[in-house]
Amino acid sequence: MFVNYTGGYTNDLAVDSLGASIAPQQVDAWITADATLAYATEFRAPAGGFVKGLRASLTIQNLTDEDPPIVITSQSAFNGAYSHPYGRTFSAQLTASF
To answer: Does this model's pTM top 0.70?
Structure first.
């Protein structure tokens, strides 16, 4: 389990719906949690053949599916340097050792 924290900050590039500059806006902090479950095993010859070991893992990023804070600039509605718009993501990995 891993917890990610991005502190709040001031958006100095804030714009309105027409693209005109407005007063700086306060952006809220963003907290997400990631979880990884992994299993590894080693084989003894000859059962494993040329594979000496395997490791399998499943990772879930942004476990609670938290939306990033809204940061309206002329470029986008979120700050890609501090967050991403993907929501909860899953990944799986299988690694073999020889």
So the answer is: yes
